[in-house]
Amino acid sequence: MRRVHSILLTSALLSVITLPAVAVADDSATVSSATYGFRTTANDKDYDSQTGVEIICNGHNVAQDFAHSADRNSDHWNNNSDNGPWPLNFSDKTVTKGELRNCAYRVSLTANGNDEWVGNGKLSISFSDGTTWTWQFNGFDLNSRGSHTESRTFDMTQPSGPGA
Protein backbone atom coordinates (compact mmCIF):
# COMPACT_ATOMS: atom_id res chain seq x y z
CA MET A 1 0.00 0.00 0.00
CA ARG A 2 2.86 2.36 0.81
CA ARG A 3 4.27 1.78 -2.64
CA VAL A 4 0.95 2.66 -4.28
CA HIS A 5 0.77 5.90 -2.25
CA SER A 6 4.35 6.71 -3.16
CA ILE A 7 3.64 6.18 -6.85
CA LEU A 8 0.44 8.26 -6.66
CA LEU A 9 2.22 11.06 -4.78
CA THR A 10 5.09 11.07 -7.28
CA SER A 11 2.63 11.16 -10.19
CA ALA A 12 0.71 14.02 -8.57
CA LEU A 13 3.88 16.03 -7.98
CA LEU A 14 5.12 15.49 -11.52
CA SER A 15 1.80 16.67 -12.97
CA VAL A 16 2.10 19.96 -11.01
CA ILE A 17 5.77 20.70 -11.69
CA THR A 18 6.40 22.71 -14.84
CA LEU A 19 9.90 22.99 -16.13
CA PRO A 20 11.13 26.26 -17.60
CA ALA A 21 11.32 26.42 -21.36
CA VAL A 22 14.78 25.76 -22.68
CA ALA A 23 15.92 27.92 -25.57
CA VAL A 24 17.00 25.86 -28.54
CA ALA A 25 19.60 27.37 -30.80
CA ASP A 26 18.15 28.05 -34.24
CA ASP A 27 21.20 27.84 -36.48
CA SER A 28 18.96 28.39 -39.53
CA ALA A 29 18.08 31.99 -38.53
CA THR A 30 19.36 34.43 -41.16
CA VAL A 31 21.08 37.81 -40.87
CA SER A 32 18.74 40.79 -40.54
CA SER A 33 21.24 43.56 -39.70
CA ALA A 34 24.80 44.15 -38.52
CA THR A 35 26.99 46.88 -37.03
CA TYR A 36 30.69 47.20 -36.34
CA GLY A 37 32.97 49.56 -34.42
CA PHE A 38 36.46 49.98 -33.06
CA ARG A 39 38.33 50.91 -29.91
CA THR A 40 41.58 52.62 -30.88
CA THR A 41 44.10 51.81 -28.15
CA ALA A 42 47.84 52.48 -28.37
CA ASN A 43 48.24 54.19 -31.75
CA ASP A 44 45.79 56.56 -33.46
CA LYS A 45 44.34 56.23 -36.98
CA ASP A 46 45.13 59.07 -39.36
CA TYR A 47 42.11 60.81 -40.89
CA ASP A 48 43.12 59.87 -44.44
CA SER A 49 43.76 56.17 -43.77
CA GLN A 50 40.95 53.96 -44.99
CA THR A 51 39.63 51.18 -42.76
CA GLY A 52 37.98 48.07 -44.06
CA VAL A 53 35.95 45.25 -42.58
CA GLU A 54 34.94 42.10 -44.37
CA ILE A 55 33.15 38.89 -43.48
CA ILE A 56 34.38 35.98 -45.55
CA CYS A 57 32.48 32.67 -45.64
CA ASN A 58 33.84 29.71 -47.63
CA GLY A 59 36.07 32.01 -49.66
CA HIS A 60 33.23 34.42 -50.52
CA ASN A 61 32.91 37.97 -49.26
CA VAL A 62 29.36 38.23 -47.82
CA ALA A 63 29.69 41.65 -46.15
CA GLN A 64 32.12 44.55 -46.42
CA ASP A 65 32.61 48.22 -45.71
CA PHE A 66 35.60 50.36 -46.66
CA ALA A 67 35.33 53.88 -45.29
CA HIS A 68 36.42 56.49 -42.75
CA SER A 69 39.13 58.26 -44.71
CA ALA A 70 37.72 61.64 -45.79
CA ASP A 71 36.82 63.85 -42.85
CA ARG A 72 39.77 65.53 -41.09
CA ASN A 73 37.91 65.54 -37.76
CA SER A 74 35.66 62.49 -37.46
CA ASP A 75 37.96 60.14 -39.37
CA HIS A 76 40.99 60.81 -37.15
CA TRP A 77 40.71 58.38 -34.26
CA ASN A 78 42.73 59.33 -31.20
CA ASN A 79 44.34 56.86 -28.82
CA ASN A 80 41.83 55.43 -26.33
CA SER A 81 38.78 56.41 -28.38
CA ASP A 82 35.64 54.51 -29.38
CA ASN A 83 34.57 54.80 -33.00
CA GLY A 84 31.27 53.60 -34.47
CA PRO A 85 29.05 51.73 -34.58
CA TRP A 86 28.37 51.81 -38.31
CA PRO A 87 26.06 49.58 -40.35
CA LEU A 88 27.57 46.61 -42.13
CA ASN A 89 25.54 45.52 -45.13
CA PHE A 90 25.47 41.90 -46.17
CA SER A 91 25.45 41.19 -49.91
CA ASP A 92 23.93 37.82 -49.04
CA LYS A 93 21.21 38.01 -46.38
CA THR A 94 20.64 34.25 -46.53
CA VAL A 95 23.76 33.66 -44.41
CA THR A 96 22.70 31.72 -41.31
CA LYS A 97 23.95 31.54 -37.74
CA GLY A 98 25.35 28.10 -38.39
CA GLU A 99 27.31 29.34 -41.41
CA LEU A 100 28.71 32.36 -39.55
CA ARG A 101 30.48 30.08 -37.08
CA ASN A 102 32.74 29.04 -39.98
CA CYS A 103 33.41 32.54 -41.31
CA ALA A 104 36.26 34.99 -40.81
CA TYR A 105 36.28 38.70 -39.97
CA ARG A 106 39.01 40.77 -41.60
CA VAL A 107 40.04 44.28 -40.48
CA SER A 108 42.25 46.28 -42.83
CA LEU A 109 44.02 49.63 -43.06
CA THR A 110 45.19 51.40 -46.20
CA ALA A 111 47.18 54.52 -45.36
CA ASN A 112 47.56 57.52 -47.58
CA GLY A 113 51.30 57.26 -47.09
CA ASN A 114 52.22 55.67 -43.74
CA ASP A 115 50.07 54.92 -40.70
CA GLU A 116 50.08 52.45 -37.82
CA TRP A 117 46.75 51.82 -36.10
CA VAL A 118 46.32 49.67 -32.99
CA GLY A 119 42.98 48.66 -31.56
CA ASN A 120 40.12 46.24 -31.00
CA GLY A 121 37.07 45.52 -33.10
CA LYS A 122 33.46 44.72 -32.24
CA LEU A 123 30.82 43.18 -34.48
CA SER A 124 27.11 42.73 -33.69
CA ILE A 125 24.75 40.78 -35.93
CA SER A 126 20.98 40.54 -35.44
CA PHE A 127 19.06 37.58 -36.82
CA SER A 128 15.60 36.75 -38.13
CA ASP A 129 14.76 34.92 -34.87
CA GLY A 130 15.19 38.16 -32.86
CA THR A 131 18.54 37.27 -31.29
CA THR A 132 21.80 39.20 -31.55
CA TRP A 133 25.32 37.81 -31.45
CA THR A 134 28.41 39.86 -30.66
CA TRP A 135 32.07 39.24 -31.37
CA GLN A 136 35.05 41.03 -29.84
CA PHE A 137 38.25 41.03 -31.90
CA ASN A 138 41.09 42.15 -29.66
CA GLY A 139 44.62 43.19 -30.36
CA PHE A 140 45.17 44.15 -33.96
CA ASP A 141 48.20 46.22 -34.96
CA LEU A 142 48.00 47.35 -38.58
CA ASN A 143 51.04 49.11 -40.00
CA SER A 144 50.36 50.36 -43.53
CA ARG A 145 53.43 51.72 -45.35
CA GLY A 146 53.53 53.29 -48.79
CA SER A 147 49.72 53.01 -49.19
CA HIS A 148 49.96 49.21 -48.92
CA THR A 149 46.90 47.52 -47.34
CA GLU A 150 47.65 45.76 -44.06
CA SER A 151 45.04 43.38 -42.58
CA ARG A 152 44.36 40.96 -39.76
CA THR A 153 41.85 38.11 -39.94
CA PHE A 154 39.95 36.66 -36.98
CA ASP A 155 37.78 33.54 -36.87
CA MET A 156 34.13 33.89 -35.88
CA THR A 157 33.74 30.61 -33.99
CA GLN A 158 33.07 32.19 -30.56
CA PRO A 159 30.16 34.66 -30.60
CA SER A 160 28.39 35.73 -27.43
CA GLY A 161 24.63 36.11 -27.11
CA PRO A 162 21.47 33.98 -26.92
CA GLY A 163 21.93 30.60 -28.55
CA ALA A 164 25.60 31.23 -29.31
List keywords for this structure.
single chain, 164 residues, Lipoxygenase-1, four-stranded antiparallel beta sheet
Task: Describe, in plain words, how this protein is organized in 3D.
The chain is mainly β and 164 residues long. It is built from two helices and eight strands, in the order H-E-E-E-E-H-E-E-E-E. It has one domain: Lipoxygenase-1 (Sandwich). The strands form two sheets. It has a four-stranded antiparallel sheet, with no helix packed on it. The longest helix is centred in the N-terminal third of the chain and has 15 residues. The N and C termini lie far apart (50 Å). The relative contact order is 0.23. About 12% of the residues have low confidence.
Concise description?
By secondary structure, the chain is mainly beta.
CATH structural class: Mainly Beta
What's the CATH topology name? Answer: Lipoxygenase-1
Low-confidence stretches: 4-23
Strand content: over 45%
Write the layout of secondary structure elements.
Elements: H1 2-16, E1 31-43, E2 50-57, E3 60-67, E4 81-87, H2 97-100, E5 104-110, E6 114-127, E7 132-145, E8 149-155
Antiparallel strand pairs: 1-4, 1-6, 2-3, 2-5, 5-8, 6-7
